[in-house]
Amino acid sequence: xxxxxxxxxxxxxxxxxxxxxxxxxxxxxxxxxxxxxxxxxxxxxxxxxxxxxxxxxxxxxxxxxxxxxxxxxxxxxxxxxxxxxxxxxxxxxxxxxxxxxxxxxxxxxxxxxxxxxxxxxxxxxxxxxxxxxxxxxxxxxxxxxxxxxxxxxxxxxxxxxxxxxxxxxxxxxxxxxxxxxxxxxxxxxxxxxxxxxxxxxxxxxxxxxxxxxxxxxxxxxxxxxxxxxxxxxxxxxxxxxxxxxxxxxxxxxxxxxxxxx
Length: 261
Ligand code: GLP
Description:
Blueprint: E1 2-3, E2 10-13, H1 16-32, E3 39-41, H2 47-58, H3 63-72, E4 75-77, E5 79-81, H4 92-104, E6 111-112, H5 121-134, E7 140-143, E8 165-168, H6 171-176, E9 191-194, H7 197-201, E10 205-210, H8 216-224, E11 242-247, H9 248-251, H10 256-259
């Protein structure tokens, strides 16, 4: 493990698998603590090995710990596409069921997402946000990083004060997410409901997970830039307990001089 001082506290691990194991252990430790707050969860390719690692690590738990995990679990996803039913294979609800809730045999009512089919998306965004507040707010929030610096579906430009709301997705984000829609960006919904930076920054602790060479450029921007609407993830610099967990590929050239250290 190498620690490099940056604008955001950063841990660099060898590869995406090592990152996933590290995050999985933090998630399980959080959820097995006394009276855990709800988890904030993300979707996307970055989270696939993370949830696989959570499932694998869960196999090491005792029966009592497993029971405790099931009893306490409450998670809130960051976002959901508008216009997709939970059963749609491209929905984030499907992703969560396939990757986490199903394998862990979690009560589906404890794995919460915005309702992508809500007739009034703004009302649904407000309801979702109020539900999170009523549940005590997010404790540990997992975040991935979009190629354009988005977190959740907070596309640039985006202020730190933005709250949970319906949003338009950028063509770049729809292209990136097309793999869940047969590779066709036009099949990716144009709109979504997302938690805003306001709710994300209100969580107690944040893990921003960045893996793979494709993220090297946006990661460098994040490590060098002051908070700005043009890079929504940069607002995380204002959070008192944020940790950036990256692999060497995402760190790109910046990792090389340190890699032998
Ligand atoms: C998506 C999601 C985010 C995710 C990010 C990165 O569009 N809304 O929650 O973290 O983009 O995705 P990926 O991990 O596939 O690169």
